[in-house]
Amino acid sequence: MSSQQISFTNPESGHQLAGIIDRPDDGEPVGWALFAHCFTCGKNLKSTRYISRALTAKNIGVLRFDFTGLGDSQGDFASSNLSSNIGDLIGAAVWLEQNFRGPEILIGHSFGGAAVLQAAAKVPSTKGVVTIAAPFDPQHVTHLLGNFIQEIEEKGSARVEIAGRSFTIGKEFVTDLETHKSEERIKELGLPLLVLHSPRDPVVDIDNARRIYQAARHPKSFISLDNADHLLSKQADALYVGDMIATWASRYLTDRPG
After folding, report:
1. What is the pTM of this model?
2. What is the pLDDT of residues 12-57, one digit of tens each?
3. In whole angstroms, how large is the CA radius of gyration of the chain?
4. Tally of helices (H runs) and strands (E runs) in the chain
5. What distance in Å separates the CA atoms of residue 88 and residue 77, rounded to the nearest whole number?
6. Beta-carbon-side half-sphere exposure of residue 234 (alpha carbons within 13 Å)
7. DSSP assignment letter at 58
8. Which residues touch 222 (CB under 8 Å, ≥6 apart)?
9. Which helix (H) or strand (E) holds 221?
10. Is 213 exposed, middle or buried (0-12, 13-18, 19+ CB in 10 A)?
11. 9-40 burial by CB neighbour count: b if 16+ within 10 A, else e?
12. Hey, which end of the chain has fewer CB within 10 Å, N or C?
């Protein structure tokens, strides 16, 4: 695939966000996917690159980007929340529509999955939604904060270590989660849904996939990721996920053959 660094603006905050466009080497993509990364991760996570590679190999273009305050994007992560993530997704979708074509497939990994489920109704070009190791309820992410929840409530923020890195989490992040009703949003999705999850995921357990699947209306599909870990750290697992998404998405892409 060929890759190009781009930037776009969150329409509400005005922050400049950094992204990468991945395109097939030969010809125009048959469609476009917008990828939302996992909590505190980024567009350059190894598994994200492999998934994008698998999609471009099937002639699907991908825009992957850093949420506000992460990676190369502007803003303060401590002031970000699920609502700002949704705004980031909308900004990315608008940029993609203005420069190529609106994204037909929204893909979200872990907390990014919660974000795409919330954002799909606000991206008119969406033809299908994919979640990878995603929580049913966005508030699930608070378990990563553990004993820091009380400090966040009392002091307004806390420095939390997640996956070996330190982040400041603000009270607004926790409060904002309560405003997003996951079950209602999933029931009202009105779009084809693909749920991918490992039954051995120690971070977001498999019951989350069951609840997402049961709340959604057809057409919906589920693919078990067997022994994959939460971050899809094995190349084979990430490429498999990309292949499965591409095959599933081919039914819904505007320019699919036949």
Report:
1. 0.94
2. 899 999 999 999 988 889 999 999 999 989 999 999 999 999 999 9
3. 17
4. 8, 10
5. 13
6. 11
7. T
8. 194, 195, 196, 197, 209, 213
9. strand 220-224
10. middle
11. bbeebebebbbbbbbbeeeebbbbbbbbbbbb
12. C
**Phi/psi of residue 217, each to 5°?**
-95, 160
**Predicted local confidence at residue 206, as pLDDT:** 97
Return the residue matching tokens 């466009």.
21
Q: What tokens appear for 143 in the block?
A: 């378990």
Element (H, E) at 224: strand 220-224
The strands making up 60-65's β-sheet, listed across from edge to edge, are 2-9, 16-23, 60-65, 31-36, 105-109, 128-132, 193-197, 220-224
- Domains in the chain, please, with CATH? 2-139+181-249 (3.40.50.1820)
